[in-house]
Amino acid sequence: MKARTVTFIAGLWLGWSLLTLNTSVSASVSASVLAADAASSAQPLSLGRTPETLPIAVVGQRYVRDIHAEGGQTPLSFALISGPLPEGVVLQDNGRLDGIPTTAGRYTLQIGVKDALGHTATQPYLLKVLAPSAKPSSRPAAVPVLTHMDLSAAASEASKLGPTAKVYQLSEALLDGLQPLLAPPADVSPDTENDLPGPSTASPSASATTTAPALPAPPKGMPWSEAQQEQLALWLQPLLGVEYPSVDLFLAALDARVCAHVKTQITNEARRLQQQPPSPSELAKQCQPGSATQSAKKLPADQKVLNWQDLPAWLLPAPLRTWLAKAAEQDRPFHPDHPPVWTATSHCHCTDAKVKLPIFAIAPNWTSADGGSEPSKGLVPWPIDFSLIQRISPLILAFDDDVILPKLAWTEAQTDFIEQAHRHDTRVDFGIYRRDWRFLATEPAAAREALIQRLITQTPIHAREFLDQPLPGWPDRMKAWLPGFGEVQRTGDGLTIYFDQIPDARTDKVLAERFADFYPRFILGLASALKENRQRHYAINLVVLDSQMRQPGGPLEVSRLFELMKAVEEPDMANGRIVSNNSDYKRNSNLELRVLVQLSEPTTLSKKQLRSDIENSPMLKGDDRRVFLRSVVPMLMLPQRDLQQYTDDLVYVQDNFGGIGFWPSAPSPELKLADQLQPDQLSEPLRTIFVGDPGLGLSNALCGVVCPNRWILRTLLELMLLLNATTWLVFQWQWDWRIRYGRIALLGVIPPVLLAAALLQCDPALANVREGNAQTLALIFILIAAAVSALLKRRVEKP
Fold first, then answer.
1. Tens digit of pLDDT for each residue in 348-359?
2. Cβ distance 393 to 426 under 8 Å?
3. What is the C-alpha to C-alpha distance for residues 69 and 50, in angstroms, rounded to an integer?
4. Which helix (H) or strand (E) holds 414?
5. Which of 575, 585, 605, 606 is positioned for an S-S bond with 600, CB 3.0–4.6 A?
6. In a 3-state reduction of DSSP, which class is residue 448?
7. 233-280 per-position pLDDT tens digit
């Protein structure tokens, strides 16, 4: 009886291992798309995605497109297998489509490629040729040959060759850009005056680097004095080196900083003159943060005495405000082939399970390794405390009309940043960025709709395939084979959508209306594609500005975001409202939508205004309001300089919203250590407010070792259990060994028990067991089993 029981248990364990192994191997193999006739090749020949839609062509306009193949042995030869090409377009042997189409239509092509070894691969392609909006001339105009080029324009055009993001960051070098506006001293000779540096010859300050962008020409006709220049260096200092991801946030920070400086100056002057300063309400009325009303009045630059009401306009004239925005604007290139370089802080362990609300971080890939450069150049990786971050979004994916999403060729070295996050149980949500909306102006309407359909159907599919791609390398593949803990290591866990420079209805009503139609269709297209894989749980994070959420009828207005949330998460509804309880509500989809709101400065006002905007939305009542508030995550800009204000923001967010987010800035020489809070100073309030009870120091120290190394310890535990099971089986047949070594063998049970207890305490995969009644039930079962074993044990009478 015992032998059959043992055999059954051993067989069950072995069968489970083989089943897990087979499932993991199948999943890994199914994720790799290989050409059928190149299965035996180490580098199979393929033509990429299936199906592939080519960029749209227009009748009468030259069309050039290269078909690329991967793998195989060069040289490669391309040929048209089936389907007619548009009249006037030919496929060359090197894979280039070239020509001027003469007939509009929809063409389905089958293109094949053959390598030097005779391997072949085919791929279907779809090419649409549209009729021109205007009647083309009977004979296309000849294109002149390039004879010369404007070097001043070449620098600006070079930045357009690849996808870039717009950020706003001031440096001390910009102060030199206003020097030409200063009147020369009276004793300066005309020759000396002519030598004053202009905007193109101004020498940079000591902190400027040779890679700093050229400053725009100073504002024309703006009065400027030495006193204004001196004050500018004072009130602008706290903004130097801080990276703002949008111009609206930058201008809000600029206005808030001016108002803070005005308040300080007026208070100090009143104290010096022993007069009563204006009341806070009078100051607030005259200088309103977040608006440019204080910049509307022109004042003489050399005026010696000012009314205090005129101080904001004197410090920040309207032309200067516009010039500062242009001077701060910088292009940050995306480098999909050079992902971010991360490293865990020295005291970092897994994400704390006791965190009350999720903590998000957006990490653009230019914030580490000097804009995505290779870490081999000796640059220091960006340290991250993963124990306080549930979800991190590397912002490295940009798409345009031709490149929907870059097909990244991940290597083992390039997956280090994903493995680093996974090791600490932090989810990775890849950021998708776009700021060019000119495609919405495409005419005629049919061509525009065809392009939109392409973006909202193919982009989501490619994004899901990218997220589901298994990580390469045998260590990651082996994690899918471990019995009981097997899990395929995927590239990503969700998507963060950051659309910048959204069309404004005040400047272009038509384009704004078209974007308002495109945005929800794109998000719902992403949700539809991710819902096709119900075996995984994904996150969709929408990055918006607080000002965009209060625009009536805007695409990111509160009520529209709420409707998107319901469509994506599919909650239970009753009488038109979400059904929920006091803790959470039930989502019927495998998606979780969060709205990451970038707060304008000063946050003392903007965070309360955000709560008020949601409270006052007529679409949100009762549980709907509470559920939506728990889906909103305010975001703060780093670094922070005011510890008290930073702590107050954290307390308010923890009480009113569904988490906190951060936009970390890159290390900059402009940020002096004395002017910013250190990482430890920032993490301590965050840990205190969002984690609360720190728990026992011994438990934290234990989990700091166990959790990041849990895969090694899991494997070691299962090897110990296998060894103990083998020993027990041997003792069933070898009674003399059992009598001789039985008591010693019992000591072998202690290590796996201790290791299992450590994993139970710290392993994120065992959180449900740790928080539920499984431990109590297991203890009861062990006690009952021990009692039954003692009762059924055969008694041997003493001789």
1. 678 776 677 889
2. no
3. 13
4. none
5. 606
6. helix
7. 888 888 887 889 999 999 999 988 888 888 888 888 888 888 888 887
